[in-house]
User: Fold this.
Amino acid sequence: MRQPQLAATLELVAQQGRDGFYRGRIARALVAAANGAGGVWSLSDLENYKAVERAPVKFSYRGATIVTAALPSAGGVTLAQALNILEQFTLGDARDPAAAHFVVEALRRGFQDRALYLGDSDFVPVPSAKLTAKSYARDRAATIDPAAATPSDGLATGTAPVSASGNTTHYSVIDAGGNRVGATLSINFLFGSGIVAGDTGVLLNNEMDDFSLQPEIPNAYRLRSGEANGIAPRKRPLSSMTPTFVEDSKGVLVLGAPGGSRIISMVLLGILDYVNQSEVDLMRIVAAPRYHHQYWPDRIEIEPESFSGQWRAALEAKGHKLQVANRKWGNMQVVFKSKSTGAAQAANDPRGMDIGWY
Assistant:
């Protein structure tokens, strides 16, 4: 596939840097394309846009140091909270139904707090330190019944103090010097907004869907969020992107995936699988069957043809509702560098093509 228009745009950016994209011909084409489709962009919107560098979320899990995405990606805080909760329990294989119950309950609570508290921290006070604290996780873990699912509608709210107030791509890299990159890039839906800006070759995203219109109105991924994620000028919406580093005595693992709200559960399961391995098997990590819970809708989604009837019956006996997805999801990309040998290995998801937001 050739994309000469996009190539010309990238060459212009290489020559002129930031001004090659946010000013001049490319900027005018972007504004014209958006406004021609009913948008309200201005050239000053692009001229005044600035990338913001933020400290990552960093925490430990069973001896591993984990570094992951900061707000406004909800992935880092939610991942930290879920793993901190799971640290309070004895877990084996995360695909075992007994362990899966605890994983689902941890995700339920993490996604509940995502909906209640998370947003762009440049605009709203977010109690990130509280939500990622081990003490808070212990309190949340104490509300989990080992024998029964907690209905999402019955889950207590207001447990953390707050001050008043498509298609995604991931790649993982480790170089010979040990430098590492986990990069997740999103245009949200399949082909974003479906609009290519003039002759630039640039596909416009539709990330506005990641904002909250009203607390009770879910987005395309069936995610709910609150006022903290409401629309405001210059504000960045929440996302679920979760590029992550995991470092322990075995070495350094870099992982991430596309998949909308399911990104968080995919990365969580990948970390649980890695920590549980004495010998690193990357293909086992990326190929393992997946399940997902996001607080609302109150159900466990499972990949088709991935879990036995006995597995499903064990979770249903605890009161969980299960739904089989219409297709498998994600396209996890993982690299690992051994601490003992220095050797690197990589694996990509056998599910193949990026099926992102489906």
Remarks:
- The radius of gyration is 21 Å.
